[in-house]
Amino acid sequence: MYFLSVSNTTGSAQNFVLSVNGLNCATDDYDGDGLPDCWELTYWPSIYSYGPNDDPDGDGVRNLDEYLEGTDPTNPLSFHPRLQINALYGTVTPSPAGNPTTTPPKIWYNLNQTVQLTAVPSPGYGFLGWIGDASGSANPLTLTMDGHKNITAIFGVTNQPNADYQFQNNLHSSVGTPPDLTNIAPGNAFMSAIVDGSLHTVYHFAQGSSVVLEPADGVIPTNIYTAVLLFSFDNISGWKRILDVKNPVNNNGLYALNGTLYFYPVASGSSATIAASNYVQVVLTRDASSNVFGYVNGVQQFSFVDTQNYATLAGAPEMLRFFKDDSTEDAPGAIARIRLYDKVMPPAQVASLDRLSGGIAPPYFLTPYFSGGVLYLPAQLTPGYPYRLLASTNLMTWVSIATNTPSASPFTFTNPPGPTYPIRSYRLVTP
To answer: pTM here?
Structure first.
């Protein structure tokens, strides 16, 4: 409210003209800060005491929002709590929907209002749980807005991998129908090794050899994927190639540089995380927005925007070459598992990703042969485990022929009386 006082000191009548410019107490903003002058003077002695982005009562809501929402900027208990929802590879629907703020994507609710959040995954993904100012995996989630909250819904890949090479005495994928891996050069062999504290079959590759997936067309998309590699290098000095996605091969790709994960020529980790003769799980992801992330044992090492398509599959046919460089920047080592997905795993899922499927590979016989009156039975199996060779003439009663603990695969069992039986069946069991 304004008051106008007029005095005439001339002793005679004078003309007086009064005009109104349309301003009023509710909208006057002399300092142009977005806060009406009268609103500011209601709480402070001057319109210059605080600005629109200040928060003098420390309740986490700036003065401009307190004005727009009708709360007291001097009372820390008078505010509307904010909710920020984050999600990748899915959506979260709040009920009620909340009120928009001047700082989206935040929305506001009345203090202590109850809100329900429903997580909906994108196709091929599943809801894993909540992090931030919520935890657990309840869906829907009911929360009380007793303060500001920042909540993230974690969605992870639930489909099985498009390819899962477990190197259990073969180069086949245990899922789907992708092509078998093939050797790049001679010198690779199955062997037993301690991986994560247990004895497992792995595939040892010589320097300059290892394996290739060719063609890789259709196994994973060219630009959206997750590759999971569980392996060990015999040495890590200098540049050691991990993955090449181009055909023909070139110098760009995923390396270890003195034990540091490096996607040449654009990004690297900050420290060495790969040690010689230690099995590490390296994960590389690329999404539809060209974001590339690299991880070692669940911990992110680098990220970059792949504007030059360094991490996209290219060539005819497409191929994935593992642990083999285009020159000599590679090392001998061993592979325990390779998985390929046509979806992008988020960091939280990578951090908790399993490594080995467990158990030993089922043995199987190769082509038997006779020599010198002896039956020879070669078999693919897991080195380091004891196997019993059993024989039967009726598939009901089995006789133990021999027990061996092979140090390499394949291993050949012998049965000298074998040729004397017109029909005899054999099987391998672990004691």
So the answer is: 0.71
